User: Which sequence fits this backbone?
């Protein structure tokens, strides 16, 4: 009996294409160089108007990423098990499930994991990657990739964008399809 290959996938920027993820590099630069923030930290919306704004921002994940067709094929193979791990907060749960339903992706995942406890995204993902005992995790946020890589015995694949393509990392790919092809071997 062969052991299943357990793969975790981030949502925004990995399963769903998000054109606005390119602003991460300038935001990171601003936080470090202008505000002097060195510790990894993400904004957590706390009141109704912040949540409305956050909902609008997350509407930018508008279509499936390149590679979703291969994900559909691989999910039919009993040797693979896919888990969606999104740091989206609980108030975006309906939005996420609606997107998955509209794009016929809901049934590809053994589990869909949403950050309902409003944890810091990198800490939430660390906990989920450990709990799910993954062999691979695919993430598009370089800060989270760097945070995870030395804390788990999991191969972390990074989906880069043109703003940070020059950053050296051994497992970087331009989009989901290339990462899945590497997993297939």
Assistant:
């Amino acid at each position: 009996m062969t052991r299943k290959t357990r793969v975790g996938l981030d949502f925004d920027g990995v399963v769903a294409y998000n054109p606005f993820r390119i602003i991460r590099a300038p935001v990171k630069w601003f936080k470090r160089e202008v505000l002097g923030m060195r510790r990894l930290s993400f904004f957590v919306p706390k009141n109704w108007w912040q949540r409305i704004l956050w909902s609008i921002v997350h509407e930018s994940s508008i279509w499936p990423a390149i590679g979703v067709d291969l994900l559909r094929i691989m999910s039919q193979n009993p040797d693979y098990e896919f888990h969606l791990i999104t740091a989206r907060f609980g108030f975006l749960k309906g939005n996420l499930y609606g997107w998955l339903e509209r794009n016929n992706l809901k049934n590809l995942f053994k589990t869909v994991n949403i950050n309902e406890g409003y944890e810091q995204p990198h800490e939430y993902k660390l906990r989920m990657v450990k709990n799910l005992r993954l062999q691979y995790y695919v993430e598009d946020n370089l800060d989270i990739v760097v945070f995870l890589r030395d804390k788990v015995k999991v191969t972390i694949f990074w989906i880069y964008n043109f703003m940070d393509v020059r950053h050296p990392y051994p497992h970087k790919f331009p989009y989901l399809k290339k990462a899945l092809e590497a997993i297939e071997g």
Notes: DSSP finds seven helices and eight strands in the chain. The chain has one domain: 5-184. The domain at 5-184 is CATH 3.40.50.1000 (Rossmann fold).
